[in-house]
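Take a careful look at the protein record below. Let me know whether the structure tokens fit the sequence:
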Amino acid sequence: MGTIRIYYTSVTGSRQVKQKQAEVTRILDINKTKYELIDVSISEHLLQEMRAKAGNPNAVPPQIFNGDDYCGDFEMLYEATENEEVWKFLKMASIDKSAREEIVV
């Protein structure tokens, strides 16, 4: 199991992207999940890395990974939240709550 990584952008003109990014971090914070934010706006290399790992050359932030394992995008996390399957989505189903206590931003 790796660290949950959220590829996001700090520079966007899209209100929709900003809202989705905020919702992803809100969901993870509520579930007391440690995560690392990776800002793709600081490097074209990071953007291309995110797209390669997601397997989609047109992927846009936010994209969610557990280590190098692709979990999904905002819509997939939202669906998992609605179905109460966030831990399954994050590939953390067997992690106990005490291991998720600290939040890293």
